[in-house]
Amino acid sequence: MTEEMQYIGKIVGGGLKHGLAVRLNVPASEVQEGAFVIAEPSQGEWLFYGLVTDLELGATDPRFADEPIEKRFSETLSKALHGQTLYTNLEMLPALMMARGPDPSNKTEYDQWKKAIDAGLADEPRPVPVKTIPPHHSPVRLAQPGDIAEIFGKADKKGNFVIGYTREQGHPVVINLEKFVQRSSGVFGATGTGKSFLTRMVLAGLIHYNAASVLVFDMHNEYGLDDIASDTREKVTGLKTKFPAKVRVVGLGGGALIRGQTPDFNLEIPSYEIQPADIEMLTRELNLKETTPTTLEALVNTFGRKEWFRQFREMKSGAMVENEDGKRVPAPDSVDAWADSAGVNPMAARGLHSKLGRVFRAPYIQDKPAADGIKEIVKLLQAGQHVVLSFGKFESDLDYLLVSNILTRKIKQVWEEMTNEFRVEGKGEPRPLVIAVEEAHKLLNREMAAQTTFSTIARELRKYYVTLLIIDQRPSQIYDEVMSQLGTRISGWLGDDDDIRAVLSGLAGRDSLRGMLARLQPKEEVMMMGWGVPMPLPVRSRRYDDTFWEELLGKKGARRKSADDEIKELGY
Amino acid sequence: MAKESIKVGRLLRSGIQGFDAGFSSYQNPIPEFGTLVRAEIEPDFEVFGVIHNINVEDDGLVRQMVTTEQVDQRTVSDNRSNRNIPMEIGVLSVGYKKNGQIKHLLPPQIPQSMTTIFLCSDEEICAFTDAGRFGYFRHILRNQDLPVSEIIAAHFEQVSQAQAAGGNDQWKHQAIDKLISSLRDDYPTLMMVMDALSDVFPDWQAED
User: How far apart are CA A571 and CA A197, in angstroms?
Assistant: First the structure.
């Protein structure tokens, strides 16, 4: 405890369940909801770390609050009276406690304790979930940079990434990227709260610190190449611009351009990669009937897993010919003819054929693609590169669901194989992979979760080095089972009660945190919570600007310009 | 304000919580309500108290005279100076000094009759009110039958002047803080005390 540390109040009551009550001895305006505070009992083994979850005005007698004292007494008397009869109580949600060790002023005892730790005879103090409470009148203070570094980690330690700053004092708060990639995570917030910027920064951190390979399903073509912010109209730097050697931008469909620029390569999906499960996943999107699984199974039985899609696409719906008897019968290459031969209801088959028209016509599905884009993407990710798959003009939900599911299924398969080889045969450890999924509720809602590969990843693939980074504005639409598996959750302002409830699900003290989440600034304030962070904390998020890049890459890296800029500077 | 302690009367009755003393109406100075006095029990043991009451008892002669139509001014003066029954002050014990140590507790012994009562000097006021942490307030505040707010106001006026003369401008602030903390759960009493203090210090500013 150094002299410049100022106590803001003392513990006067409360408990673990409903939080601790702290009587403030500074004006209420000097403390804000969400502040990181520390209770330091004058005696005892523990320091207590917590979060301000509420501030409440009180009076020793309500009449002191009701009466306009300043009109009745002189300024000095009024001030003296207010100082003791009116007060502010702060509610502290205790989250962690840490053994403090002996007082350093008692040198002998302190040195012995330190020696025991250095010799491995005693444990290094580390924060643990709070199990007890500080005694009455324990002084409470706002966290200093050292406290935040102690709990969240030091900003200059490798693998720690500054995600933002404490709201009042601006002390840096970091996330540990190694821990971050060990479990799936989520970035949430209502529209316009800066989810995409925050995600860009997290991805930049992952790429820069080489914590994992990253695959981004970039539905709106925001992440790879430079973009223009929809609200400020300012230029937003793409990941490819700053990491040209590490990031590959892949465009969906042959010859696709992304924001007028040529991607590193194009992805065409071979028709043989499409499986019945990929179609079943589109049930809602295509309004498929309950007969679909039976029809699909019959198609696979007739043509095999690799050919069914192409064969079905080539069939003619409703084509009739006259037979030898002059009777009109289904043409041999018609859907009805196949349905008759396969014992499938012809109407169900015709209906499915008709509804799959949008898939049949998707130009990015080719029987013989120019290159095996899926394989190329997997290889890049295995090699530690990062891929931004831009959907270009294919921005419909159908395109997004279909392509992301096919690609992710393939990746899952490869990473499972690599992990098994690593565990059984002792081959190289697979590289962690983070798959960033925008509009995640479309893939991970209650209905879809059972059908897509994503829910399996969220629930199980942690063991296989693959995790998700979910970006969504409606977390309440995401299946509970998936939400409960998210390690780190970073949330901006949310206006809907159900969304707030979903983001806080499974967290201790969620009742206290609920109001805090609802009262975040609509921009540039986020709350970090979940397994990946030691305790929930609202932070002022970093700005995604030149300063961010300078701090991350150094001045040289931050000056790296996009090809467009360089061309412009040359006068073209 | 007394520079030295001055004899103001002699003890009539006493108890642990206070005592009464008699004095002549023609003596100078006449003790004032709210001031600090002391009664010497032994050379090194004295009881301190705050005057909470001053009264004049009647006698037979006064009773006869008050009904007379015309009373000569000389007769009035004679009655006042040569009356058989003295004027009385009621004193609330607020502490004592024994062997040079001041304590804000009720005295272990009581002063005997005819003990001389002195008005405290500025130095004695400062010494007594600076000792401890205003513990003597509780002896005043718990006497709800007395005009607590008026006693406090009169006492504050006397002591703050003595303390200011001694160079301690902070006494008043600290004393009021203590008063408020003692009374903050008793809204009616505290507001009465604050009203009385407002009358004593109507324009009190922080730097005063």
Answer: 30
d(CA B67, CA B69): 6
What pLDDT is attached to residue B34? Answer: 95
pLDDT at B42 over 60: yes
Six-digit token string for A206: 């992952």
* Predicted complex ipTM: 0.83
Q: Do B197 and A61 touch (CB under 8 A)?
A: no
**Distance between CA A262 and CA A254 in Å, rounded?**
11
Name residue A95's amino acid: A
Band of pLDDT at residue A96, cut at 50, 70 and 90: very high
User: What is the C-alpha R_g of chain A?
Assistant: 30
Q: At what angle do helices A546-558 and A195-208 cross, to 10 degrees?
A: 30
DSSP letters for A311-342: HHHHSBSS-EEE-TTS-EEE-TTBHHHHHHHH
Strand partners, A261: A258
Asked whether the beta carbons of residue B201 and residue A79 sit closer than 8 angstroms, the reply is no
φ/ψ (deg, to 5) at A382? -65, -35
CA distance B77 to chain A (A): 43
* Cβ–Cβ < 8 Å for A280, A292: yes
pLDDT at residue number A114: 83
Q: Which residues of A touch B176 (CB under 8 A)?
A: 77, 80
Residue A100: helix, strand or coil by DSSP?
coil
| pLDDT score recorded for residue A3 | 44
**Dihedrals φ, ψ of A250, to 5°?**
-115, 130
For residue A68, the tally of other CB atoms under 10 A from its CB is: 7
Strand A213-218 vs strand A433-438: parallel, antiparallel, or unpaired? parallel
* Contact call for residues A166 and A31 (beta carbons, < 8 A): no
pTM: 0.78
CA separation for the pair B39, A549 (Å, rounded): 82
- Among positive and negative, which fits the CA dihedral A435, A441, A443, A449? positive
If DSSP states are collapsed to H, E and C, what string results for A122-169? CCCCCCEECCCCCCCCCEEEECCHHHHHHHHCCCCCCCEEEEEEECCC
Q: Mind listing the pLDDT tens digit for each residue in A366-419?
A: 999 888 899 999 999 999 999 999 998 888 888 988 998 899 889 989 999 999
